[in-house]
Design goal:
This protein is of the alpha/beta class and 235 residues long. It contains nine helices and eight strands. It binds pyridoxal-5'-phosphate (PLP).
């Protein structure tokens, strides 16, 4: 990366922080309640390492292998990395114990495999359940109707702890379009929290991306996932 590119990235992150703070304030929330995750998929280890020095809280990767490679290369500096993309069962072993949080739990089979790997390693793996709010075929995640049935099973898996919910709503065409989805996810979050399942500690609401993170914050997001807003458009 050239110094010009570095400067551009630094300014983008500063801008995002300012917008996050403003959105939090407008919603009567504390800015420090909301984490900025850099979605570093497809970015080189070098670019990722540069961004680790900026004002971001943590990283998110979509592919297990990319997370492992960049972590081994030290690209995340001292910041945690989360798994935010769809996780295949046979890849769970690579990220359990390495990803601070897996955002994409979407089936009981995957939960069982994560639990099995966590037990093998003698640890507890934190996860979010991914909810497919709009019923999009192309996306993973459980439907809002399936969520409680999944939680009732998952809460019996001792080496797994549910920390909250994640969603990727349809790409918004106009500003504000995704607010109803964010609001719906927050409602599910609050409902589950009030039910006090074992091994379920609802404290993370992962929603909002480059184009809609301010709306997500207005609706209660505690973690926003920003890719292109930090790194520029993906090729
Ligand atoms: C790529 C990605 C993001 C970031 O998307 P941008 O629109 O580039 O901000 C967030 N969440 C997930 C799961 C992603 O795959």
């Amino acid at each position: 990366m050239g110094t010009e590119e570095q400067k551009v990235m630094e300014e983008r992150v500063q801008n995002i922080r300012r917008q996050m703070e403003e959105a939090a304030r407008q919603a009567g929330r504390k800015p420090e309640e909301i984490l900025l995750l850099a979605a570093s998929k497809t970015q080189s280890a070098q670019t990722t390492a540069f961004s680790a020095r900026l004002d971001i809280d943590l990283f998110g990767e979509n592919r297990a292998q990319e997370l492992v490679e960049k972590m081994d290369a030290g690209a995340y500096g001292d910041k945690p990395a989360h798994m935010i993309g769809h996780l295949q069962k046979n890849k769970a072993k690579y990220v359990v114990g390495r990803a601070g949080l897996i955002h994409s739990l979407d089936s009981l089979e995957l939960a069982r495999e994560i639990c099995r790997q966590a037990q093998k390693k003698g640890l507890t793996q934190d996860v979010l359940v991914e909810v497919n709010l709009a019923g999009e075929q192309s996306k993973s995640g459980v439907s809002p109707q399936e969520l409680e049935a999944l939680l009732e099973q998952v809460c019996q898996l001792g080496a797994l702890r549910v920390r909250g919910l994640m969603a990727i709503p349809p790409a918004a065409q106009v500003p504000g379009q995704n607010r109803p989805y964010f609001s719906a996810l927050r409602q599910l979050f609050v409902d589950i929290k009030s039910k006090k399942y074992d091994n379920v500690n609802m404290d993370c609401l992962s929603m909002g991306m480059s184009r809609d993170f301010c709306d997500a914050i207005a609706e209660g997001a505690t973690l926003v996932r920003i890719g292109s807003g930090i790194y520029g458009p993906r090729s």
